[in-house]
Fold this protein.
Amino acid sequence: MSLFPRLRWIVLDCLTGNAILVTHVPFSIGSQDSANLLLPGPAVFGRHCEICHTKEHGFALMKIDPEGEMIVNGMAVDFAPLRPNEDYSLKIGRHLLVIRGDKHPDRWRQAVNHLEWMLFAPGAATGEGPLPLPDLCHYAKAEAKDLHSSVIPKGVRMGFYLHQAIEAVGDGGSLHHGSLPQPAAASPLISNDGLPVAELVEDASMATAPPLPIAEPVAPPPLPPVPLPPMPSMAPEFVSDVPIDVGEPCPVCWLRFQVKDVMHVAKHESLRGDPVLSVLGPDFMLRFRATTFNARRQAIDPCGVPCTEVACPHCRQRLPPGFIGNKHHIFSIVGDHAAGKSYYLSVMVRELAERLFTEFQIRFQDADPEGNALLNDMVKTLYGAQTPEQARFMKTALDGATYLRVPRTGRVVAMPKPFVFHLETTATKAVKKDDRSAEEAERRCSVILYDNAGEHFQPGRDDDRSPGAQHIASSAGILFLFDPFNNPRFRQRIVELGLADPQLEKPLMDQQQIILAEMRVRLAKLLNLGLGKKVTTPMAVIVGKCDAWMGLLRRDHPAESNQTGADGAGPPRARHERIRPFVNPLRGPGLSRSAIEHNSALLRELMIEIAPTVVANAEGISSQVCYFPVSSFGHTPLKAEINGEFAIVPDPKQLEPMMAEVPPLWLIAQIEPEIVPLTD
């Protein structure tokens, strides 16, 4: 045994338990006989991929065959850097592998049990199991579990999606649940420096572990369908003849239309039933193009009744009151699943309404109480809770309550519900010295928000059948919510702080840099951007849960600017200390440009140190990127048992959000500077 063991890379087959040491690079993986790791079966190519070493990234996993699919940590990629002491899940064909770099690979291998798997629902801190993988997949299908749940073998920190495991397992006939077959004899593996691997690791038996055994491929059954009700196709004559790229975007389907093409919603009961919306049910009122109006300029339906509602000519969904003739700004909230988008959206709306009125004399009003009912309920649930159990939010599902099924370009699709709010200056703020009337001086606009499921931002989710995140192409501002607890290096730094946070127990499935890369691809495609072109849309990178990680920063910054509130009085010392070393950007009239720039520079420096690819990807999307520390709860959440399941929830008695309203205020300042001015 060496006193200074060297780093060695190990590849583990999670289905059979066999492991092989990487003794040289490049280390090829594929179906040809000369591959260092031979993988038989369908969808595996001769030289499928390889473990290599590059100058820029060090060790990495690189796809070789362009026709092959390499799924790393749940996502299809062509290249993935590999860092020591981190587990990387790899799916090739029906093979589920884990790669790890470790100075003691034998210890790590001994801690792994490929016969005991756990199932974690998206965002859940505790799982179900353990069971052998075929049994777990059978149970999950029988119980209709979310196909984006994670399945993880005991002792491994990075798992696979449930639907990937189901595909790999097939009927389970090729898996061994008892003792493993005896490996064929193999000569000792030789490392790059010519020494037998047995001299470099503590467990010499691992050095003679053979490549994975060849088994007859078993064709997997088709994946079970996502449990959605059947969606009938639409007849061609029901597709709108209105141009989709002219005018203002609909807040529901995001197809554009001009005011002259808007439809009205009939009121007379005999006009119930719309030929397009009939695919969703018989109870929708008729949509029609009005030709007659009364003295109040209200459209008259075919039965002579005045109409008070209008609808999009494409999806025929009801438009929010006051939508026509008003300026609208879409704010896209983007983030991975379980990043806390729903909690942040609820806190942001509450804090933004209060701050806009008290600091800027701006009314932030509910523009559509009926359409915003779900978000209003979420706000009431969080701020009205008396116990942690009452403050729990359910995960946003792709077909859940925050989504509408609407007809769009000839098919029925799920689209996120828009939450619409009016911003309106008060007369006292707007009246200037030029004697304009208060009504003329008032400024108004609307902000539209969405609560997407995180899966909608993953690669492969963006097409005409699943367009639920295409609002980023029409957005006036982008809010990217980064979850530090879902980043391995950030999580390790938080652990080193000694923080006892139940979020550290969640399984890792870090896809945040991939989501940013996917966002860039979508924007380029939807906006027809040239290679390397950036959007000018302001983008706020929100590093959430800052109450947990602010200890990573030096706290001796002389943040005198925190000493002054909007009214010139100093805030309570407790509030001042909570945000150090960051500076309060709401220290006086307007939004402090210098404070925002200071905070952004400080946080960007930390992100470059811990998560540099997030910075690189974000700044490759937009020419206006700013970084913001935010905490939706302002305290360490709790782990609570609710209906027999464990969930991570806030403590309502300690709820004190930190700077949640600052990112949207900055976005408003970029697009409506006369409503929210930036000051030096």
User: Anything to note?
Assistant: Residues 172-239, 429-441, 556-576 have pLDDT under 50 and may be disordered. The CA atoms of residues 24 and 192 lie 5 Å apart. The chain is about 20% helix and 20% strand.
